[in-house]
Amino acid sequence: MEKRSVDFDRINAHTFPPKFHLPKMLNGRSLLLRLLLLTSALSEMVFVACGDVGTASHYSPPYQPTECYSGDPSQFPSSNLFAAAGDGVWDNGAACGRQYLVRCISASRSGTCIPERTIQIKIVDYALSSSSAATVSKQSVTGATLVLSQTAFGAIANSSVASINIEFQQV
Ligand SMILES: *[C@@H]1O[C@H](CO)[C@@H](O)[C@H](O)[C@H]1NC(C)=O
Questions:
Q1: Where do the domains of the chain lie?
Q2: Which one of 113, 158, 159, 161 would you pick to mutate in the ligand 1 pocket, going by the greatest count of ligand atoms within 8 A of its CB?
């Protein structure tokens, strides 16, 4: 038993670098960690920069019933950040429940976008539905890529405009 422990110590002494090299080793490790963090931050930036460009309008309450969830209010995010999907996003209903990062990039009137504000919205409805609360007549303009709730629209732009240009990316 004693002999074994002596052997183990000897192996350790040969395998690991002397004590005074230890700080260097830790530095190398934290550098690697920093590189990893930088890489993931960069890839995230590229990811956001590669988002799609489209338009957003807004619609008014009541927001139910929806094409996705009928009259189930539990499906609405408590943040009130949600949207009805236009044809480009709807995906034959598969868009229900998908989450998107959305930011305002421009509008016909300058100063409309709230700069550097990105929101995350959930798709709860279909903008071209004939039977849901997101019916065309309640939209500020028709044919938008995303029809945002009033809360969502107001979070990224001045709500007095009917439509904004957006960058959006599924998360
Ligand atoms: C939104 O736009 C309207 C019309 O131009 C303007 O009167 C109002 O002050 C703006 N609101 C904000 C918060 O900038």
A1: 2-48, 52-170
A2: 158
